[in-house]
From TrEMBL, chain A:
It comes from Metallosphaera tengchongensis. It holds the Pfam family Fer4_21. GO terms for molecular function: 4 iron, 4 sulfur cluster binding; metal ion binding; oxidoreductase activity, acting on the aldehyde or oxo group of donors, iron-sulfur protein as acceptor. Residues 262-291, 292-322 form the 4Fe-4S ferredoxin-type domain. It comes from the Archaea. Keywords: 4Fe-4S, Electron transport, Iron, Iron-sulfur, Metal-binding, Oxidoreductase, Repeat, Transport. Its cofactor is [4Fe-4S] cluster. This is (4Fe-4S)-binding protein.
Length: 365, 324
């Protein structure tokens, strides 16, 4: 692409449905601001992400450049851009990997980032902690953190908690070539009817307090990613048939453990072996062990929390923030190895990692 | 006839024929129905699935989570596909091409693919005496294509086709249609039909088992709470399922050989032993009813009350109220 250098991309990675509107509004704002700045811009969702599922990682893009809009649309009609300039991560647990469609496998969050690009994460954890789980790149890039709780609502509700304004402020700070602070301010003033001053101060606050770290080459966590090879039509079975899962197995090609923001932790000492977690799990994550306990396959668990809801024993199954775990190791073998150590590990993990869920009528989450 | 009924949780078979690694939402109850039916039906089963959210969920780019064969049909083609599959199996057995053994044919179709546009095909399939079970998983919308209204959407619910406006708050004004009474009233040869919800797993599994054992064309209508379309925290899927029954909105009953049997807790409600919970408890937990005002709640409650006070068969047949 000869004229490809003129186009810049912003990628917004979010949790499907919960943050769909948030991502859409961020993209919409960026398009308006870029147009005000005299550039053409379009926004589009990644093809494979619609129809979205609750919690499944999904992506939204903004393309901006000096081409005319029609050319830009033509240039953007693909599943996703090859490289992006800015990545906005709306939930810090997405740093562990993104899997929205099977054939991509579990991708690192910053797979498409250009050299010298910027990634903005919304998180209440400090930057050093985030760096430990962020996949390393071969080159230098910048990581910024906005100190904000992840904003979850639902399909019909939109949680207007100024995350949108904060993200714009952060982009203006890190990449003024995409949008500058002046145009963010003008956009907010002109397009938002209510709480304008509050919104403006959210923009300022993000701009002032954004923590930025320059990531050195190879800094961060190791992330092994090899894109799965797609079968050609000659290799496929007749009539687009798909080979079934062998008996007793699971679908190895699509694990989707990246869907979860929380994971269930089990206190095996208080388990009464009632089987309720096993029977109510929509993702068949529980494996019965020989002594009647239920072991969890975390790489298939999507963290819906039904098991914690139906468990009749208090504090036996508790949902804990996914950010506190490094691997997908099964809990049963850990407990079998050393019960006392498991108990203290459990206590340490649950402390501060458990979110009180308040049911707000009509607001979903 | 029903010798091997699952009485306790310990009798539930452990082996899965619909396993992990599917592309459903967090807290998807329809995936649970699928899991239960595959579990109860066992390895000698063919599952036919009409287009819907559970079709996309099970075919994620050349991967699947099915252990038993699963066939995709077009949106309105579920009845015809089931009939064809069942007839083909019988023909193959008669000709001695395959071993003679019971093979379950189960159709899994959504409310659009079964109760709306697929109803003619389903009704046609019900008139023949082939062995097939049609399971209608009802999440009260077309959930695959971002929540559109269907005839199963309850009164007043928000969908992308019925958003509340300033001039008219309630855009969906029709009442949800009852499919099982329609099926049992219209098809004399049908020996088993039931309503269920996966919030009662043993009930669901027993109904599937009974339907498969009785044979002939059978029908199960399952109400599946859908965190995406109903807009609630996926954690509360199970609670919303039980609330739908406890408020009386979703009566659990089965129709066996011409007799209508209520199941608990609906049985208690009909007999007057259990008091119905106010419908409000169920409605206000969901984002799709967030625009409801006091009078809407009252209207909804009135309609549900009518089901139990002035219907010919409580919660099932409204003939009496029509004559009046």
């Amino acid at each position: 692409m000869a004229h490809g250098e003129d186009v810049k991309y912003v990628e917004i990675t979010y949790r499907g449905i919960f943050q769909k509107r948030l991502a859409k509004y961020i993209a919409e704002g960026l398009v308006y601001m870029a147009r005000e700045m005299g550039r053409s811009a379009v926004s589009f969702g990644r093809y494979g992400d619609s129809p979205e599922r609750n919690g499944v990682p999904a992506k939204y893009y903004v393309a901006l450049g000096s081409l005319n809009e029609e050319e830009l649309i033509g240039y953007s009609t693909r599943v996703e851009p090859e490289t992006v300039d800015v990545i906005v991560v709306l939930d810090d647990t997405l740093l562990k990997g993104v899997e929205s469609w099977a054939w991509q496998g579990v991708q690192p969050i910053n797979l498409k980032l250009k050299e010298g690009g910027a990634m903005i994460v919304t998180s209440t954890r400090n930057l050093e902690e985030l760096v430990k789980v962020t996949p390393a790149k071969e080159f230098r890039w910048d990581m910024g953190r906005i100190n904000v709780e992840k904003s979850f609502s639902g399909l019909w509700a939109f949680k207007d908690d100024m995350t949108m304004e904060r993200v714009w402020g952060a982009i203006a700070k890190m990449r003024p070539d995409i949008v500058d602070l002046e145009h963010v301010r003008t956009y907010v003033k002109e397009h938002k009817k209510d709480r304008v001053n509050e919104r403006l101060s959210a923009v300022e606050e993000a701009y002032e307090t954004l923590v930025v770290k320059s990531m050195a080459p190879k800094e961060g966590a190791e992330f092994k990613y090899s894109p799965p090879r797609l079968l050609t039509w000659q290799e496929m079975m007749e009539g687009a048939a798909v080979p079934a899962v062998p008996r007793g197995g699971r679908n190895e090609q699509f694990k989707r453990g990246t869907t979860k923001t929380e994971r269930p932790t089990v206190d095996f000492d208080t388990c009464i072996k009632c089987k309720l977690c096993w029977v109510y799990c929509p993702d068949e994550c529980f494996d019965e062990t020989k002594d009647g306990y239920y072991d969890i396959a975390y790489d298939y668990c999507v963290g819906c929390g039904i098991c914690a809801d139906v468990c009749p024993v208090k504090n036996c199954i508790v949902m804990v923030n996914e950010g506190r775990f490094k691997d997908y190791r099964r809990p049963y073998e850990m407990w079998k190895e050393d019960k006392v150590a498991y108990k203290s590990w459990l206590k340490q993990v649950r402390e501060g990692g458990v979110k009180e869920r308040v049911v707000v009528p009509g607001l979903g989450r | 006839m029903y010798k091997s009924i699952i009485k306790t949780m310990k009798d539930v078979p452990l082996e899965e024929f619909y396993t992990s690694g599917h592309r459903t939402c967090q807290g998807c109850e329809s995936a649970m129905v699928m899991r239960y039916l595959a579990k109860v039906a066992g390895p000698r089963t063919i599952v036919v699935g009409a287009t819907g959210c559970m079709y996309v969920a099970n075919t994620t780019y050349y991967t699947t989570s099915w252990v038993v064969p699963w066939v995709h049909t077009q949106l309105g083609g579920s009845g015809a596909a089931a009939l064809g599959t069942s007839a083909a199996l019988r023909a193959l057995m008669r000709k001695g091409k395959i071993k003679e053994e019971p093979i379950n044919v189960i159709v899994f179709c959504g409310d659009l693919g079964c109760a709306d546009m697929g109803l003619s095909g389903v009704s046609n399939a019900m008139t023949y005496d082939y062995n097939l079970l049609i399971v209608l998983y009802d999440n009260e919308s077309s959930a695959n294509t971002d929540i559109q209204e269907t005839s199963m959407t309850p009164y007043g619910a928000q969908t992308s086709f019925s958003r509340p406006g300033t001039a008219r708050r309630i855009m969906k004004r029709r009442w949800k249609k009852s499919v099982v009474p329609m099926i049992i009233a219209g098809h004399r040869n049908i020996r088993y039909a039931a309503t269920t919800t996966p919030a009662y797993p043993l009930d669901t599994m027993n109904k599937i088992k009974k339907a498969l054992e009785i044979g002939g064309p059978t029908f199960i209508h399952s109400l599946d709470p859908c965190p995406k379309g109903w807009d609630y925290d996926p954690m509360y899927s199970h609670e919303l399922g039980t609330l739908s029954v406890e408020t009386g909105l979703w009566p659990l009953y089965e129709f066996v050989d011409g007799k209508l049997i209520y199941n608990e807790p609906t049985k208690g409600i009909v007999e007057g032993r259990v008091k119905r919970k106010p419908v409000r408890e169920y409605l206000e937990k969901q984002g799709r009813f967030s625009h409801f005002t006091e009078e809407d709640y009252e209207y909804f409650q009135k309609m549900v009350d009518e089901m139990y006070t002035s219907w010919e068969i409580p919660g099932v047949m409204p003939i009496k109220s029509v004559i009046k």
